[in-house]
Write a structure and sequence with these properties.
The chain has one domain: Cathepsin D, subunit A, domain 1 (Beta Barrel). The radius of gyration is 15 Å and the shape is globular. Strand 4 and strand 5 form a beta hairpin. The strands form three sheets. Strands 4, 5, 6, 7, 8, 9 and 10 form a seven-stranded mixed sheet that branches. A three-stranded antiparallel sheet has the order 1-12-11, with no helix packed on it. The longest helix is centred in the middle third of the chain and has 6 residues. The chain starts with a strand and ends with a strand. With 133 residues, the chain is mainly beta.
């Protein structure tokens, strides 16, 4: 599947980002998000606001610590989540944290463990293929 990079304007500058439309499925509802595909992120990270919107329980969650730039630490809770991109559905771990209040992040666990991704910045596209078991 080929997905284009998104043109984002920040402070009157154009940035091209590998953003991917993803559907996150909860108990009885689903939410569409635009997530940053980030090969440098250890975890897939979702905003805390999605916990209530998706009716996801954190009672069986595992605590996780997200470490960002400058070794800044942010707490989170990891649980299995049902994702969908195009026709592909999978269940993978995601960390719910305030660190993703502005944008969802698709990282190593939860996304890259299930897909092979080729970034082609010069073409402003990414090629995402389901990993064969």
């Amino acid at each position: 599947m080929i997905f284009p990079y998104w043109e984002i304007r920040l402070d009157s500058e154009i940035h091209w980002l590998p953003l991917l439309p993803v559907t996150i499925h909860g108990q009885d509802t689903s939410v569409d998000v635009l997530a940053l595909v980030d090969s440098g992120s250890e975890y897939t990270v979702l905003g805390l606001d999605l916990v209530d919107r998706l009716e996801i329980s954190l009672t069986q969650s595992k605590p996780a610590i997200l470490v960002g730039l400058g070794e800044h630490e942010e707490p989170g809770e990891m649980v299995p989540v049902n994702f969908q991109v195009g026709k592909y559905r999978w269940t993978g771990p995601a960390v719910f944290s305030a660190a993703a209040s502005r944008r969802a992040i698709l990282g190593q666990t939860g996304f890259f463990a299930f897909f092979a991704v080729a970034f082609r910045y010069w073409k402003r596209e990414m090629d995402i293929r389901r990993r064969r078991s």
